[in-house]
Amino acid sequence: MALKDLSTAELETQLTDARDAYAKFANRGLLLDITRGKPSPEQLDLSADLLTAVTNDDCISPSGVDVRNYGGLEGLRELREIFGELFRVPVDQILAQGNASLTLMQQALTFALLHGTPELDTPWATHSRRIVCPVPGYDRHFALAEELGFELITVPMDDEGPDVSAVRELVATDPTIKGIWVVPMYSNPTGATISEERARLLLDMPTAAPDFRVLWDNAYGLHHLREPHGQMLDVLALAEEAGNPNRVLQFASTSKITHAGAGVSFIAASPENISWFLKHLGAGSIGPDKINQLRHLRFFGDAAGVVAHMAKHAELIRPKFDAVISTLEAQLAGSGIAGWTNPDGGYFITLTVLPGTADRVVKLAAEAGVKLTPAGATHPYGLDPDNAVIRIAPTMPSLEDVSAAAEGLAACVRLAALEKLLAED
Ligand code: PMP
């Protein structure tokens, strides 16, 4: 029965039970961290062979590049071919770079701020600027844009992606709105995948800024949890069809595929955007770490090798997602105080609790030894107006620990909701 339908006396009884459940949870003395989407040690072990894939006797790429030396700003061609195939991008329109796609996002925005874009050589830094942030979203996108002086404007997300009518209305008349963040597949944190219809609407909408950019952060495009899985959109082709080939900058990396701290990142875009990016990139680098790129090339072999490797990740992490979902179901279904996503891929589950209680839940969990991402982190400036969204990252702890954390979390959700309902009574 929904808690809000209970009488005060019934709520008080439930509160006593909830306090007991919470005390039991706290007494277990757990020390767990489900704050960030990191691969578990077992997932990192899947890529152990990377560390021996290149030796000094064997450091020439298939096309004859000595990867120890300078050069090759675009990144190793054969690796770009593999990831170009996976991301549906011609090899000349994808670059392979260092270990962090976030750095590529920072570089793209910084180049636009300092030098303008292929369409408009007015540097973005010369005027005030805004960026659209679908919520709930990824805290590092928000922090990066804020640090670069963008005002963050929120629009809601649903199961099919950002609310495109809201976006279209905003961008149609305001030339200071220069872009939108989109995590197209298995978004961080809700797991939503954008529909083709919404993608097309974003790509062909009229924008007051002639150099508006869709920052298409395809971080989880290969991270399916279940089969059969959805297909990746050919976003560059869609942008071209819409007559706005330069509108999209696509980003990805192997951070959650091989070693999170030592992977390879990718940027894919129109030929014009790629030459613009390379021109500015070349001022600061003679070339990326090609030894690591050759390691990745040898480790995967081909696109099928990447797909097979991702299936091994799914085997390891699917049980953790399932454990969290089934615990939440068992503890909270029908209570009317929480909802949660059950994603088909990616790294996160979004838990939506009774409005006004997310920060209390996070605090209760922390005091009982389970660290969660701070409430509000899923929203620009750390401000969730409903104080209701909590991001759960189930991949890093063991299955046993993540199940214990989910059980404890459910106890915190119930306790915080009962406290609130009784305070309002
Ligand atoms: N984008 C999204 C949506 C992410 O969730 C993450 C990792 N949490 C990143 C980018 C970071 O990617 P990288 O390691 O390539 O910088």
TrEMBL record:
The keyword Ribonucleoprotein does not apply. Keywords: Aminotransferase, Transferase. The keyword Transferase applies. Gene3D superfamilies: Aspartate Aminotransferase, domain 1, Type I PLP-dependent aspartate aminotransferase-like (Major domain). Pfam families: Asp_aminotransf. Signal peptide: none annotated. GO terms for molecular function: transaminase activity. PANTHER family: AMINOTRANSFERASE, PUTATIVE-RELATED, ASPARTATE AMINOTRANSFERASE. This is Aminotransferase class I/II-fold pyridoxal phosphate-dependent enzyme.
